[in-house]
Amino acid sequence: MNDPLPERSIPITITYLRMDRPLTKAPPPTPGIPHAILRAERPTISFYRYLYNTVGERWTWTERRYMSDDDLGAIIRDDNVEIMVLYVRGVPAGYAELDFRKLPDEADLAYFGLMPEFIGMKLGPWFLHWAVSELWSRGPEAVTINTCTADHPSALPMYQRIGFNPVRREDAMLRPLP
After folding, report:
1. What is the DSSP secondary structure assignment for residue 5, as one 8-state letter?
2. What is the pLDDT of residue 81?
3. DSSP code per residue over 85-131
4. CB 115 within 8 A of CB 121
5. What is the pLDDT of residue 121?
6. Of 7, 37, 74, 149, which sits with the fewest C-beta atoms within 10 Å of its C-beta?
7. Is there a contact between 98 and 37 (Cβ–Cβ < 8 Å)?
């Protein structure tokens, strides 16, 4: 039996998007500040929660906050899931969760975002292009992503500019931050 949603739940609309062809547009300019993208191999639960909670707090990312450590660990330590962390001057600036569990049909950008201090520095479009290129490098038939009305207001337009097309919308209730 599912737990009832708390009274403070937030109504949202989720938009599911799909890209059926690899990127053809040139990538945005490479950031002019020292940066690196590193895979967090078999990340600890606490490090992943730090990334997820810090990137998603302003946008009410709650789904994984309610997951048990065992359930979360099963996802993030799966051999077909890659947690890619963007560092700027040695500091975590964002992350992309690349999910290849549905290959060869689809690759999914399960989570993507920047730490609050790095929003507005033109890193988002560049990092998104990088992440989507990585997903396509595995040869899927399509790449998917979703966003919702509680997410950054630039998320949906940025996804559409890079080539994602909405395929479905769904109304839902978002659990509040614990």
Report:
1. P
2. 98
3. EEEETTEEEEEEEEE-TTTTTEEEEEEEEE-GGGTTSSHHHHHHHHH
4. no
5. 93
6. 7
7. no
Report the pLDDT value the prediction gives residue 115, as an integer from 0 to 100.
Answer: 98
What tokens does 92 get?
């975590």
* Domain parsing of the chain, residue ranges: 10-174
* Residue in 44, 99, 47, 51 with CA at minimum distance from that of residue 73: 44
Collapsing DSSP to helix, strand or coil, 34 comes out as coil
Q: For position 7, what pLDDT does the model report?
A: 60
Q: What is the pLDDT of residue 60?
A: 86
pTM reported for the whole predicted model: 0.93
What Cα–Cα distance (Å) separates residue 173 from each residue in 1, 10, 11, 93, 151? 17, 5, 5, 29, 14
Q: Give me the amino acid identity at 33.
A: I
Angle (CA) 124 44 136, round 5° = 40
Tokens standing for residue 64: 């994984």
| pLDDT beneath 50: ranges in the chain | 1, 5-6
Interatomic CA distance for residues 127 and 11, integer angstroms: 29
Q: Which CATH superfamily is domain 10-174 in?
A: Gcn5-related N-acetyltransferase (GNAT) (3.40.630.30)
Residue 136 gets the label, from left (phi > 0), alpha (psi -120 to 50) or beta, of alpha
Q: Residue 144: what pLDDT?
A: 98
